[in-house]
Design brief:
540 residues, 2 strands, two-stranded antiparallel sheet, Fun_TF, mainly alpha, nucleus
């Protein structure tokens, strides 16, 4: 018996790609839903068209998670996973991705404590190895500002605070840019500016102390016996309060010189709260960042009137806002797309301009269902065309960065593709039918996962994995292996960077995975419902 494709009803919905059996056998698939009819005629079990996750063995060699086995997409089937101790914050083992063994030791804070050093302030009083171990500061892109040749603001007169300043220079600042390098503005702009504006200095030191604690489990100790980030943050907020009132009200135009440092300090505080998983203060700081950005770029001001430092800060505020707006459902006054100076627009800014437009439309449609659909969001073809146009305009974008090798360029291109598919998936989730276009969304999710698995060395870019993986994970309802895959890669990214902000989002995903499509067609309806009950989440 044979099946002619011409005999199929053209009005029936079809999958966007061939089934696995037909693809493997290199024959034309009829793409019937839910399974291919050709497979049925040959008594074959059709695997369908959904996310394809298989497991392969890999072992992490770094940090406290070393020795754990990992999931990857494709490859040969692996031996059964060995049971490992359950980490405190997770219901399942946390394996690292398979290329963890290739990470340079420099980026793992726990493995950096390898050089003998005398017992000094600037390490933990609870660290049993503090008398023998120190930190190796060897980031080739660090500024290494010589503080002995200048008058320094408090608390940099403390040698332990100076080492924390250096720790930020070498390690913490490296977790912010799309790719670490000599043009990292979280280093080249923030550090010199912090020596001119004390609240920013306190914010950077607080963030460095919090990240150090998150990475190592120990507190940073100062010469006076104080430890950790709390006092630094409190001092920063106390100094910021009046400057912020003056900036927003416009009551002190003579303090313009503080404006750059003010927004920089607020952005640092936004990121400080991301290190911890139990803080909701990011919303307060985010609101302040929005207010200042609106003030700086509203008539008679604009992106064209900003100086170089302010342009960087506005770009960072816009990126933060685009991420945060996706998962928040109150306070719709988003930062507009035109705040970014034309010279600062890159492929990621272009993607997040589209993401910001998608979010803006979703919120407007919720308030008024008759709200017109933007032309580019009216069907799948136009959505895909919009994202493909961004990719075409930025071919060779990785060449603009001083990347160390061809392998690094390959990894960066894969990162771009990861954002391409995940941002397009987000647009599909908002604009298309949640049931009829399910397979199309799964195709995008597979594209993002394929892109992730092309990355050979995540070191230096894995801080960018969280948002794409979150969007992909929202398509994993009913797919246990896909859920594990996303969860383990997300936890790996957080372990590698020291940021703990994703734990509440991961808890949200676990709750969403238990829901039914009939009650919550997409994660967005579920997130809005939880937001109304006071459950907020940030994914960035």
């Amino acid at each position: 018996m044979s099946l002619r494709l011409a005999s199929l009803d053209p009005n029936e919905p079809r999958a966007a790609k061939d089934c696995r059996n037909c693809n493997r056998r290199r024959i034309k698939c009829d793409r019937s839903i839910p399974t291919c009819k050709k497979c049925g005629l040959r008594s074959l079990e059709c695997g369908g068209y959904g996310l394809r996750i298989r497991w392969d063995q890999g072992v992490a060699s770094r940090g406290k998670l070393s020795g754990m086995k990992i999931p990857v997409l494709g490859g040969q089937p692996a031996a059964p996973l060995v049971k490992t101790p359950t980490p405190p914050r997770s219901e399942s083992p946390i394996p690292h991705i398979r290329h963890a063994a290739t990470f340079p030791a420099r980026v793992d804070i726990t493995s950096l404590l390898a050089s003998p050093a005398p017992a000094i302030a600037g390490s933990s009083r609870d660290d049993p190895q503090q008398n023998a171990l120190g930190i190796i500061f060897d980031n080739p892109h660090a500024l290494n500002i010589n503080l002995s040749e200048r008058e320094v603001p408090s608390p940099l007169e403390d040698p332990a605070a100076q080492r924390l300043f250096k720790y930020y220079d070498h390690f913490v600042s490296a977790t912010f840019p799309w790719v670490e390098g000599p043009d990292n503005h979280w280093r080249t702009v923030m550090l010199p500016l912090s020596l001119e504006y004390r609240p920013l200095l306190l914010a950077l030191l607080a963030m460095a102390a919090e990240q150090y604690s998150s990475k190592t489990g120990f507190e940073w100790i100062f010469a006076d016996g104080s430890c950790g980030s709390a006092q630094l943050r409190d001092d920063c907020l106390r100094l910021l309060s009046q400057d912020l009132k003056d900036e927003v009200s416009g009551a002190a135009p003579d303090q313009q010189r503080h404006s750059s440092g003010l927004l920089a300090a607020i952005l640092a505080l936004c990121n400080l709260e991301m290190v911890r998983s139990d803080s909701a203060l990011w919303r307060v700081h985010w609101s302040a960042a929005r207010a200042i950005t609106h003030r700086w770029t509203s008539p008679p001001n604009s992106a064209m009137t900003l100086n170089y430092n302010d342009r960087f800060l506005v770009v960072d505020a816009f990126t933060y806002d685009a991420h945060a707006s996706c998962t928040t459902f109150d306070g719709y006054r988003q930062i507009p797309n035109d705040v970014v100076h034309p010279h600062d627009v890159d492929i990621f800014i272009e993607y997040f301009r589209l993401v910001q437009d998608v979010t803006r439309f979703e919120r407007a449609r919720f308030e008024d269902y008759s709200h017109p659909v933007p032309e580019w969001l009216q069907d799948r073809h136009r959505i895909r065309a919009a994202f493909d146009a961004v990719r075409r305009r930025n071919l060779g974008f990785s060449q603009l960065f001083q990347l160390a090798s061809e392998e690094r360029k390959h990894d960066f291109d894969a990162l771009i593709d990861m954002y391409h598919y995940s941002a397009m998936l987000y647009a599909f989730q908002v604009a298309l039918h949640p049931v009829a276009d399910l397979l199309l969304r799964h195709e995008c999710a597979e594209g993002a996962i394929d892109s992730l698995n092309r990355i050979k060395s995540p070191e230096g870019i894995q801080q960018n994995f969280v948002w794409p993986l979150f969007v992909v994970a929202t398509e994993a309802r009913g797919m246990e292996e896909a859920q594990k895959f996303c969860e383990w890669h997300l936890l790996d990214a957080m372990a590698g960077t020291g940021w703990g902000n994703f734990y509440p989002a991961l808890d949200f995903l676990k709750r969403f995975w238990k829901t039914t499509p009939g009650l919550h067609p997409t994660w967005i309806t579920f997130a809005r419902e939880e937001s109304a009950r006071g459950i907020k989440l940030l994914v960035i």
